Amino acid sequence: MGCCVIVGGAYGDEGKGKIISYLALKDKPSIAARGGVGPNAGHTIEYNGKTLKLRMLPSAVVNESTRLLIGAGVLVDPVVFFREVEQLGCQARAKVDRNCAIIESKHITLDKEGHLKDTIGTTGTGTGPANSDRVMRVGRIAAQEESLSNYLEDVALSLNSALDRGETVLVEGTQGTLLSLYHGDYPYVTSKDVSASGICSDVGIGPKRVDDVLVVFKSYLTRVGGGTLEGELPAEQTLSRGWQEYGSVTGRLRRAAPFNFKLARRSVVLNSATQIAITKLDSIFPDMGHKRAFTNLSSEAREFVKKVEDELATPVVYIGTGPDAEDIIDRRNEVKNGKR
Ligand code: IMP
Ligand code: MG
User: Fold this and answer.
1) Mutational pocket test of ligand 1: of 13, 74, 190, 218, the residue with most ligand atoms within 8 Å of the beta carbon
2) Which CATH number fits the domain that encloses residue 194?
3) Are 71 and 97 in contact (CB under 8 A)?
4) What's the number of domains the chain is made of?
5) Residue 101 sits in which domain range?
6) Residues 18-46: pLDDT tens digits?
């Protein structure tokens, strides 16, 4: 299976956690490596009736045979990391790159005031100030953090060696392409590039290592914090359509808008997507919940998927139809056999 990089196509919260947990169970990767900014992410996973909310560990945690690595580019908040490791009992398989920079309480304080809080509307998790210290080369790194001493690894080396051996690995992005520091609508962005290239750099693999770039979209857009959101709905409409979501890190009601083909196209281009996943199809088409075959979808739902494929010139390989990891239509065989 090789190396699949999974990234968000919009403003984060596309449902990456759900898609990744399905792939982890199905494809049994030996390693899942997480790139992205840090604990500003919140990935929600439902599996076997349990809901997990992850901010630091890879979402592939649901597969107990997968090693869970955090790439050098990622910021680690040791408090959040240890809370998750203990909650999930994954001490033996969770590792952090020696070069990960550390979030300290002073970073969190700075992220909850002034420009960052009032203008940007950050998650207040300390990531921007910690990246700022990192750029100034005054921040601490994991290798200097005593509490992490049993959890250190050269993640880039592990990942590249696994690929040399022909193993399957997942590289997990966080946030979404439209929040990229470089490619998003600055200054209403996060503190790093979070497109596929940035995520590969975070974990230490070069572009030639990648077999698939899977870009995840939700069937409608949501955004938290400042910045424009084309087609934004008034809060009452968000509620009446059943699109209300609350930030899994911040608890804020997310702003919502219909799916935007133009923005999605840009995201596909920026990431050189080879595959697309669409989540929450059941939120825009009634009665599509828990469907697991494309032929069981209504004709309107199938038309929407075809329109996405036509406009984005990329196959829609996974369709999410409910919160559980298994509520998914997996079209890999159809796509491979050209039956789509
Ligand atoms: P920061 O990443 O906490 O600095 O926040 C910068 C902007 O990115 C704000 O608009 C946040 O709401 C947004 N953001 C950061 N991480 C996520 C995420 O994982 N999901 C959704 N929005 C995010
Ligand atoms: Mg989230």
Assistant:
1) 190
2) 3.40.440.10
3) yes
4) 1
5) 3-336
6) 999 999 999 999 999 999 999 999 988 88
